[in-house]
Amino acid sequence: MYYGFEMMSFIVPIIVILVIVGIFLSFVPLGLWISAVSAGVKVSIFSLVGMRLRRVRADKIIRPLIKAQKAGMNVNANQLESHLLSGGRVDNVVDALIAAHRANLDLSFERAAAIDLAGRNVFEAVRMSVTPKIIETPWISAVAIDGIEVKVIAKVTVRANLGRLVGGAGGVQRNGPGRAPAARVGEGIVTTVGSSQSHKSVLENPDLISRTVLSKGLDNGTAFEILSIDIADVDIGRNIGAHLQIQQAEADKQIAQAKAEERRAAAVAKAEEMRAEVE
User: Fold this and answer.
1) Beta strand segments in the chain, E
2) Is it the case that residue 5 has pLDDT exceeding 70?
3) How far is CA 156 from CA 80, 89, 122, in A?
4) Which of 28, 115, 269, 272 has its CA 20 to 30 A from that of 186?
5) pLDDT of the residue at 174
6) DSSP assignment, residue 162?
7) pLDDT 10s digits, 19-47
8) How far apart are CA 97 and CA 111, in angstroms?
9) Amino acid 233: pLDDT
């Protein structure tokens, strides 16, 4: 009996210790904490427990934090957790900060987080600031003053403007570059061709379109900068002026026929009336 009691007194503390360790490990991602400490990131176990109690995935904070501090960024766990709880993408913001730091771009965590929360792809925006994108427009149809349709394809080189990504039109969405640059350039092309006296002047000097459109400042109030506009192709379409004249002539013809039929019907009615009076 004494031996059994001694065994129980030895096993029970071990079981209690194991239960306590199990509960502790369920709240604390020990492996993640070891990774952070070995990477030189100062994070306490109690911080990880607090994240678990706030239902925040610690790996969504610690792994980007390790990446940021390894890159020499001054970012702390509270900033990343706050951004995550606001619905932001922490990994994307940290990647953008690292890319901006290496490219010597002035981008703070607050601005990067604001850009991300505004629905922009901040990492892609930083990449576009370093390496401009070329956007090819579809066929843009415009009519010169002489009535000839001119079709134009343009290649637009744009660069993201980090200072205007929040509140600016167009720019870089979460799924890639927006359509605003091509749309604004298309509007400028239509205006430029429409103000040309002849379609021949457009064909002879397509660079005139580029210079005129660039001088309009189409990127004002937008989240991008237009660096260049290159006319890739120019083609002649329909003779809109002649087509409209034909339609107008056909309409005039129908109006004249209607009026002639009206006069004929009036004459017939008048003749019937006079015949009735004679009888």
Assistant:
1) 133-136, 140-143, 148-160, 172-173, 176-177, 224-239
2) no
3) 36, 30, 21
4) 115
5) 47
6) G
7) 665 665 565 666 777 777 777 778 777 77
8) 10
9) 85
28 secondary structure, DSSP code: S
Residue 175, pLDDT score:
46
> CA 236, CA 242: separation in Å to the nearest integer?
14
pLDDT one-digit tens code per residue, 92-101: 999 999 998 8
Span 105-137, pLDDT tens digits: 888 899 899 888 888 888 888 888 888 888 888
Q: Tens of pLDDT along 223-243? A: 788 888 888 888 887 776 666
Integer CA distances (angstroms), 206 to 47, 155, 192, 242, in order: 63, 13, 11, 24
What are residue 226's DSSP bridge partners? 158
CA 186 – CA 239 distance, rounded (Å): 21
The pLDDT mean for the chain works out to: 78
Measured between alpha carbons, how far is residue 82 from residues 25, 112, 176 in Å? 24, 13, 25
Distance between CA 158 and CA 236 in Å, rounded?
Answer: 27
Q: Which residues pair with 177 in a beta bridge?
A: 172
Question: 170: closest CA among 162, 180, 161?
Answer: 180
Q: List the structure tokens of 126.
A: 């930083």
**Cβ(130)–Cβ(99) below 8 Å:** yes
Half-sphere exposure of 186 (CA within 13 A, CB side): 14
Report residue 243 as tokens. Answer: 């087509």
